[in-house]
Design goal:
Blueprint lengths: L2 H21 L2 H26 L7 H14 L27 H24 L2 H22 L3
Helix pairs in contact: 2-3, 2-5, 3-4, 4-5
The structure holds ascorbic acid.
Ascorbic acid (ASC) binds next to helix 2 and helix 5.
């Protein structure tokens, strides 16, 4: 197949995927983005326990978890559609849909810090992992402080 045709089909696939997110039921989008955050906490927490000396450092688990987090960190965001602004079962503040650029910057920051965490994990440098873990945690907290109800 010609390259242009392949690109066109790939672009169509992406459009269909984005449309599917846009048309999903708001309640489902909320459930799905929460699921992504739940798994993010699942794989982030043990790294924290290790860098804080509460659990023995296991480089293989840190590297695995950080790799999972790189993928998970990309998942919640297409669930924050304006259509979800009126869903009750969420702590997400309505400001998210009024400050789209700021919210996206916050989400981008978290993803960038997780990329650094994964790189630190691969390097095997525990001090680098510790520093990167702290930066990821701060990026989580900044977004929670701004955009999540207590
Ligand atoms: C976690 C977790 C969060 C963040 C946040 C960082 O382990 O579940 O939501 O870190 O507490 O401040």
């Amino acid at each position: 197949m010609k390259k242009a045709a392949i690109a066109a089909i790939a672009a169509l696939g992406l459009t269909v995927a984005l449309d599917a997110a846009a048309q999903a039921k708001p309640e489902d989008l909320v459930k799905q983005r929460k699921a992504a955050f739940t798994l993010t906490a699942k794989y982030f927490g043990p790294i924290g326990a290790m860098v804080q000396g509460k659990a023995p450092y296991d480089a293989a688990i840190v590297t695995r978890n950080a790799g999972f987090l790189e993928t998970l960190s990309k998942m919640p965001w297409d669930g924050f559609q304006a259509s979800t602004a009126d869903v009750k079962e969420t702590r997400a503040k309505p400001e998210i849909y009024k400050e789209g650029d700021k919210f996206k910057a916050s989400a981008d920051k978290m993803q960038a810090e997780i990329v650094k965490l994964a790189a630190a994990a691969k390097s095997g440098d525990q001090n680098a992992v510790k520093a990167a873990f702290g930066a990821v945690g701060q990026s989580c907290k900044a977004c929670h402080d701004a955009y999540r109800r207590d």
